[in-house]
Amino acid sequence: MTEASAISDHRSAAIGPGRLILVIGPSGAGKDTLIGWAAATCADDGNIVFPRRVVTREASAAEDNEALSAEAFREALARGEMHQARSDAS
User: Fold this and answer.
1) What angle do CA 30, 23, 54 make, to 5 degrees?
2) Is the dihedral of CA 28, 45, 43, 76 positive or negative?
3) 75 Cβ contact list (under 8 Å, min separation 6)
4) Residue 87 near residue 72 (C-beta atoms within 8 A)
């Protein structure tokens, strides 16, 4: 299985209505710590969804994401396998 084909295993179900909460900030600001705390706090609530992040750099122990090469990321986008995605390498 290629890197890009692995994304198709993570198809999302339609959700909504509801709220979308975005956590943004510079590298090292604590975004992943905040998201991890929220996910742990909300673990028993099936109405709350935390999407899987796909990034074009190596994953680390501090981040909950899937790493793809920039080329595999572009290929997945072209096939429509990811929505509202952004590549850090673009």
Assistant:
1) 90
2) negative
3) 4
4) no
Give the whole-angstrom CA distance, residue 53 versus residue 83: 11
Give phi and psi for 6, each to the nearest 5: -65, -25
* Residues in CB range of 1: below 8 A, 6 or more apart: none
- Count the alpha carbons within 13 Å of 86 in the hemisphere toward its beta carbon: 1
What SS3 class is residue 16?
coil
Condensed to tens digits (0 to 9), the pLDDT of residues 27-41 reads: 788 888 898 899 999
**Count of positions (residues) in the chain:** 90
Amino acid letter, 69: S
Q: Which amino acid makes up residue 38? A: A
Is the pTM higher than 0.90?
Answer: no
